[in-house]
Design goal:
By secondary structure, this protein is of the alpha/beta class. Helix content is 22%, strand content 15%. It is globular and about 40 Å long.
């Protein structure tokens, strides 16, 4: 295992249940990617602010991604185009993660989902035995 991919798109897009905003894009997510929608990171009373550290840690836990704050593995943030993935990078830093181990896949789904030879998965992510 070389890293942990975290997809911050809405759950419906991650699972391939709704069409992508970009025409012709395949539906689903990268194999092994975890889903933490970026909107779950934001304060519902003021979406210009993140939730508190304790609330963010709970969001990660509920998403099956509690380990992304402390893992020594690289964390790769992905979204539709690379923009909202930056919210995960900032939220992880607020939780104490060293940002040097967190990266944005700037091509994100607009690149991965457009390639016909990249593997994709539809539906919820299956938990791995090491989690």
């Amino acid at each position: 295992k070389e890293g942990i991919i975290v997809d911050v798109r809405a759950g419906e897009r991650y699972r391939g249940e709704v069409e992508e905003p970009r025409p012709g894009m395949r539906l689903g997510h990268m194999p092994g990617a975890r889903n933490v929608p970026f909107t779950d990171l934001l304060n519902p009373n003021n979406p210009l602010q993140f939730k508190s550290k304790d609330e963010l840690l709970e969001v990660f836990k509920q998403a099956g991604a509690a380990d992304i704050v402390s893992t020594p593995l690289p964390v790769i943030a992905s979204c539709g185009s690379g923009a909202t993935a930056c919210a995960l990078v900032a939220a992880l830093e607020l939780c104490g993660r060293d940002r040097s181990g967190t990266h944005v896949y700037d091509g994100s789904w607009s690149e991965w989902g457009a390639e016909q030879d990249t593997p994709i998965v539809k539906g919820a992510r299956e938990k791995e035995s090491s989690e």
